[in-house]
Amino acid sequence: MFGDLLKRLTAPAPEPLPDVDARMALTALLVRIAKSDGNYAAEEIARIDRIVASRYEMNPVEAAKLRASAEGLEAEAPDTVRFTRAIKHAVPYAEREAVIEALWDVVLADGERDEEEDALLRMVAPLLGVSDPDSALARQRVEARRK
To answer: Taking every annotated instance into account, which residue ranges of this chain make up the domain Co-chaperone DjlA N-terminal (predicted)?
Structure first.
C-alpha cells in the first residue's frame, strides 16, 4: 500500500515530498517513537492526534485517519536509520526541527522519559540533521509547556 512512498523516500537521491506524503512520513515517525518502548499508550496516540490536527489544521477525525494510515506506513517502513535519513533529504530543515519538538511531545506524553524512547530520539535528531543543542531546546520547550 505504501510501496510508492517508501520507494521515493529510500531512493538514492530523494526529491522533496509532496505535502501529503511529507505529512504521512512525519506522522509515521511520531508513531515509531511512541511504539519504541513497546507500549503504544492511549496518551501517546491522543498526543499524536492533537499534534497532527494542530500542525496540519485538521479536525480530530482527519487527524485520527492520518495517524491510522501512518501506523501502516510505520509498520512497513525500513529501519529507523534509513527511514529518518530519507526524511532528512525530503523535508526542509525548519520542518524537521519542528518534528523533533513534536517527537519530544510524544515521548513525554505519558509523563515519563522512557529509556527506549529517549535513546531513539537521541539517535533520530542527528539523523534528521538537527543538532543536539536544538533537540535539547525543543525538549525544554515541551517540558516548559507541561508545567
So the answer is: 24-140
Give residue-wise pLDDT tens across range 30-58: 999 999 988 899 999 999 999 999 999 99
Domains and CATH numbers, the chain: 18-146 (1.10.3680.10)
- The predicted-structure confidence for 63-118, as pLDDT tens digits, reads as follows 999 999 999 989 987 778 777 877 787 777 888 888 899 999 999 888 878 888 88
| Three-state SS annotation for the chain | CCHHHHHHHCCCCCCCCCHHHHHHHHHHHHHHHHHCCCCCCHHHHHHHHHHHHHHCCCCHHHHHHHHHHHHHHHHHCCCHHHHHHHHHHHCCHHHHHHHHHHHHHHHCCCCCCCHHHHHHHHHHHHHCCCCHHHHHHHHHHHHHHHC
